């Protein structure tokens, strides 16, 4: 088996984004948007509602924004490899493309991908990493 490629981002950081992206993707439209009735303490199912000031989205954005430029480019490249835009052996090209085409905030771009967690997981798998093992360590 070929050796795993060198990533500019720790697989554990990718796994963290995968976990948080799954939480974010599980959100549904708010069924009651009044502040007092959208409180998870009063209605535990409200945690699945997607409010404008959703802390899950803010957490993902904050985490991705805190990554350095190389880590952000690698994260985008992994999503593209998982989506099939690039092949695993084109990792370097995908990273360079991510760097050169960055015109928007990376976090907002990635959150706009409907299957982000699936793409990142698939990208890790295609590069020889085991997302399940990495996620279980978190």
Please name the defining characteristics of this protein:
138 residues; 7 helices; two-stranded parallel sheet; mainly alpha
Explain this structure.
- The chain has one domain (11-31, 38-137).
- Helix content is 55%, strand content 3%.
- It is built from seven helices and two strands.
- It has a two-stranded parallel sheet.
- The two termini are 26 Å apart.
How would you briefly describe this protein structure?
The two termini are 26 Å apart.
SSE topology sketch:
Layout: H1 11-25, E1 28-29, E2 49-50, H2 55-66, H3 69-83, H4 91-100, H5 106-111, H6 116-126, H7 131-137
Parallel strand pairs: 1-2
Helix pairs in contact: 1-2, 1-6, 1-7, 3-4, 3-6
Q: Could you estimate the helical fraction of the residues in percent? A: 55-70%
> So how many helices?
7
Largest sheet: 2 strands, parallel
Residue windows where pLDDT falls under 50 for at least 5 positions = 45-49
Instruction: Calculate the terminal CA-CA distance, rounded to whole Å.
Output: 26 Å
Can you count the beta strands?
2
